[in-house]
Amino acid sequence: MTTYDERANLSDLTATADRVRRSVETVIEGKPEVVRLSLTVLLAEGHLLIEDVPGVGKTMLAKALAKSVDCSVRRIQFTPDLLPSDITGVSVYDQQRQEFEFKPGAIFAQIVIGDEINRASPKTQSALLESMEERQVTIDGHSYELPDPFMVVATQNPVEMEGTYPLPEAQRDRFMARVSIGYPNPEAELQMLDVHGGVSPLDDLRPVAHAHEISKLVEAVRGVHVSEPVRRYVVDLVAGTRNHPELRLGASPRATLHLLRAAKAAAALGGRDFVLPDDVRELAVPVLAHRLLPVAQVQLNGRTAEQIVADLLRHVPVPATNHREATSRPPLYGRPPQRGY
Predict the structure, then answer these.
(1) How many CB atoms lie within 10 A of CB 327?
(2) How far apart, in whole angstroms, are the C-alpha atoms of residue 235 and residue 140?
(3) 94, containing H or E segment
(4) Which domain holds residue 229?
(5) Rounded to whole angstroms, what are the CA distances from 310 to 21, 81, 116, 229?
(6) CA max distance for the chain
(7) Which tens digits make up the pLDDT trace of 184-197?
(8) Residue 160: predicted pLDDT
(9) How many domains does the chain have?
(10) Residue 332 lies in a domain
(11) 252-260: long-range contacts at Cβ-Cβ below 8 A with a sequence spacing of 24 or more?
């Protein structure tokens, strides 16, 4: 049974998340599914990769999310000459005290915006590996904890564009989800001309949630229930990528954890304290596709990893037992699961 405290936590979560969502949507018009996915990743303790062509608002989305939460924010502009120490920090010898002093790098913030991450060399990109997975940085044998909450929101241009490097497989696997913003529809673009034509909407954006509120919401998401059939469904989907004839690299066990955590966050945002198979299905493409590597012939035929994941969703059996759980444990606030990822 759901306790009163759990109901209160979910009530706080949905109210706070709605404030953040509305704040971001004042900047990013006409893309509610993209904003919702960003919030899902934040509450699931993940990192977000925003990939699209230049000029569609990738950096604007990252900055709007960061400015909507009252926490420390640092931006890293990735360039070919960026060094790993610029990100992680460096030990400098203090002659007065005759000892080394650690100077933190740009990674020491609660929300880190990595702009055009694939314009830096693979060596520099790899400087993020430890911090994104273990939430710490090790310099000269000493480990330094990163603040809580901690989230990396990175943007990148498509690999085929000039001056870009492909992200290493280990780097892509540390991003919980990848999202593409896409071009706005004509109505949203017309509204953008009115809103963005004079001043940037980021100038008027004010925090609507505090970092400690986000930490409490993360704790509430951790308590969301996942039944055995749904957990098995997550495992079956990920396992299906590992022996798929069109893939030379399937999803990792980390992908399984990320898909489960994201589904729990999506359920909580929907006002439920349990996960439905629909939550998993809606997140499977953004969580799994960017980790997969199709074989060469599949790439030549123009078939994408997103299409392969969509095929898996059609063929992997959906558990039916969870419907009985949904009947016995209805949504707390009568909200149906939202669609649109």
Answers:
(1) 8
(2) 39
(3) strand 89-94
(4) 224-341
(5) 27, 39, 28, 20
(6) 69
(7) 778 877 877 776 66
(8) 63
(9) 1
(10) yes
(11) 252/173, 252/291, 254/173, 254/174, 255/173, 255/287, 255/288, 255/291, 258/44, 258/46, 258/176, 258/177, 258/287, 259/234, 259/283, 259/284, 259/287, 259/288, 260/226, 260/231, 260/234
